[in-house]
Structure formats: structure tokens, C-alpha cells
Amino acid sequence: MEDANSPKTNSKSVAVLILLGVINMAVVVGAGLMIQKAKKKEAAEALATETAKPKSEATPIPEKPYVSKIVPVETVIINLLGNTGRRIVKINIDLELEGNTAPQEIIAKKVQIRDRLIVTLSDQTYEQIQTKEGKENLRELMRDNLNGLLKEAKIKNVYFTDIIYN
């Protein structure tokens, strides 16, 4: 009789374990591929069903009037007015339009709007805009200057989404 620790028994056990491991891996990979194939088929069927629907069956998206519309302005980096050395401000501004105003005029006049914002901001000192009241005054000044430029659109609020001083 052979001992349980003999080389033949150990090598057979190792071979069986390796074979079971390979079979296990093959089953897992096969199952994963089947699941992936089924998901692709479902997605293709859903897309085919959606595109095959006549336009009359498609759910219409109700048109809502503009309650308010936010239009972002490109980042402005400007030197502030002052004699205490160079102060630079980087500011991101969003404009909220009033009522049913569409943003087309804002987009069409983005160069003029950016120019007005730069000129308005460059006339300020760090001391004027560092406080909460100073920022509120700057918002009002910017809003009034921009509303003077626009014919159809009206700006309700000016929002500072980011301000960095240096």
C-alpha cells in the first residue's frame, strides 16, 4: 500500500486541483460573456423599438416658458485699479435673464458684454470690492451697464460663481 504522502498521490491531487480551477475560470468567463451578450441584445432591441415608433406615439416634451435663464460668461482676469501695487482678480460671472427673455441676444453680443464687464471691473479697487457690500454694488453696476447695452433681453441678476484675488 502506498502512503498518503507519496509523490504519486500529491501530484494527482495537484493536477485535479489545477483542472478544477481551469474549469471554474472557464465557467465564470462563459457566464460573463453570456450576460454581456444578453445586455447588448436588450439595448439593441430597445433602440430598435424606440426608433420604430411613429412620431405620433412619441411622448411630446411640453414647452415651458422661461422662468429664468442663466447664461455663463467666460472667465475674466483683470488688473484692479489702485496704487498699492498690482492687484489681479479672476472672476467667473453668470447672468440671469428676466422673464421670457431668450438668451440669443446675450450669446450674439458676448464680445460687447465681456468688454463692458472688463471695463466696469477694471475701474474698481480691491478695497471697493473686497466686502460684501462692495460685491453687491459691483453686481448692480454690472447689471445696469449690461442692460443699457441690450435691446430685448433684460438681466435680472449677476452672479459671481468664483472670485480669486491676488
Cross-sheet strand order for the largest sheet: 1-2-3
CATH homology-level superfamily of the largest domain:
Band 7 domain
Distance between the termini: 88 Å
Which geometry do the CA atoms define? elongated
What is the strand content? 15-25%
How does the major sheet shape up? 3 strands, antiparallel
CATH architecture name of the largest domain: 2-Layer Sandwich
Task: Give the averaged pLDDT, no decimals.
Answer: 81
What name does CATH use for the topology of the largest domain? Tetrahydropterin Synthase, Chain A
Helical proportion, percent range: 40-55%
Uncertain regions spanning at least 5 consecutive residues = none
Radius of gyration: 34 Å
- SSE order, one letter for each helix or strand: HEEHHHHE
Task: Give me the secondary-structure category.
Answer: alpha+beta
Number of domains: 2
Count of alpha/pi helices: 5
Overall number of strands = 3
CATH class of the largest domain: Alpha Beta
